[in-house]
Amino acid sequence: HLVMLYLVIGQWRVPWSFCIWHGKGHLSPVQLACKLLARVPKTLTHRFPVIVLADTEFGTIKFLQAVQKRQWRAVVGMPGNRQMENGKSLKQLYRTGRRGQQVRLVGMSTPLTVSWFWLKRSERKRELRFVVSTYPYSGVYLVRLGRQRWAIEGFFKTIKHRFSLHRFGQSTLLGLYRWLVLSLVAFVL
């Protein structure tokens, strides 16, 4: 698997750095992501608030704490079965809670802001998605950031399946470099 740090600075969108997850027995994708965050130069982060958008896979306590340690803001997808300190799951908020409310997840010392929305899937199906933030955004703005995050995720799924990244680019560093060069050549031609 590929763990990638993708920067958006104003109108610029730049794949900044990446690591390859080699499977069990090696660093986890969350640990690799924390290493990538540690490599971001302070010159890019000291003037503006930094918002880290991350996939549901990175909705772990360790990742959220790594982002908070740098005084950045995390916006992370969260599975609906994640437990809150009051014993309920996030999915139960859909019926009884309100978007933008603060919740405490089990194992997390600071409150998180939560929101949700219905993501359209194929064949007119919808899927309830949850997004949390370490910063107290409004529910509507948090949903907008969450949708941005899923748009970026959709881009990477597209390059994985339509441009064969999953065939040879995710296994080795050399394979990834070859894939990037081939993609650049195809773009230029």
From TrEMBL:
<dbReference type="InterPro" id="IPR002559">
    <property type="entry name" value="Transposase_11"/>
</dbReference>
<protein>
    <submittedName>
        <fullName>Transposase</fullName>
    </submittedName>
</protein>
<feature type="domain" description="Transposase IS4-like">
    <location>
        <begin position="30"/>
        <end position="188"/>
    </location>
</feature>
<dbReference type="GO" id="GO:0004803">
    <property type="term" value="F:transposase activity"/>
</dbReference>
<dbReference type="InterPro" id="IPR012337">
    <property type="entry name" value="RNaseH-like_sf"/>
</dbReference>
<dbReference type="GO" id="GO:0003677">
    <property type="term" value="F:DNA binding"/>
</dbReference>
<dbReference type="Pfam" id="PF01609">
    <property type="entry name" value="DDE_Tnp_1"/>
</dbReference>
<dbReference type="GO" id="GO:0006313">
    <property type="term" value="P:DNA transposition"/>
</dbReference>
